[in-house]
Amino acid sequence: MGKWITALILGTLALTGPARADTVSPLWQSLSGSPDYTTFVKALDEAGLDDRLKHATDRQPVTVFAPTNAAFEALDATSRTKLFSPANRDRLRDVLNLHMVSGEVAPFRAVEQRDLGSDQGQSLKVTDDKGQLHVNGVSAVPIRHFKTGYLYRLDRVLMPRQ
């Protein structure tokens, strides 16, 4: 009888396959694997927003306008320190959510729409200056399209209106 139980268990495993851990979205893998976005990734983690990108799917894609490390370094020291202070987590979330838009927003669609609703709630103004995409006046370079969304590079950090 023990052989039957062993065979049943092995047969079930063969049919269902081994248990798999949650898969991480390719968008998150690209963003978190790049040395250019370590500050943005760290900020998302500190603000508790990293799961939003880790678990983006083709049914719930997200477009990310990711500021580079240099964009964060360009903030004056006081603003940067204040932004990353534990006492200002809500402000950090506002800033980061301004960089995300629910859905897939291709460059041509962004230009057509002109106003994108950010996850923060404020609109992002999109313009095209001789083929160069700008979001709220900041250069937005399309980096890659994924089934789980789009990734754009920003050379400055967007700040919400107060």
UniProtKB/TrEMBL annotation:
GO MF annotations, alphabetized: cell adhesion molecule binding
Keyword Disulfide bond: no
Biological process according to GO: cell adhesion; extracellular matrix organization
PROSITE patterns cross-referenced by the UniProt entry: FAS1 (PS50213)
Organism superkingdom: Bacteria
Domain FAS1: 24-158
InterPro entries, alphabetized: Adhesion/Biosynth-related (IPR050904), FAS1_dom_sf (IPR036378), FAS1_domain (IPR000782)
Signal peptide residues on this chain, from the entry's feature table: 1-21
The entry's keywords: Signal
GO CC term, one of those recorded: extracellular space
Pfam family name, one: Fasciclin
Gene3D superfamilies tied to this protein: FAS1 domain (2.30.180.10)
Protein name as annotated: Fasciclin domain-containing protein
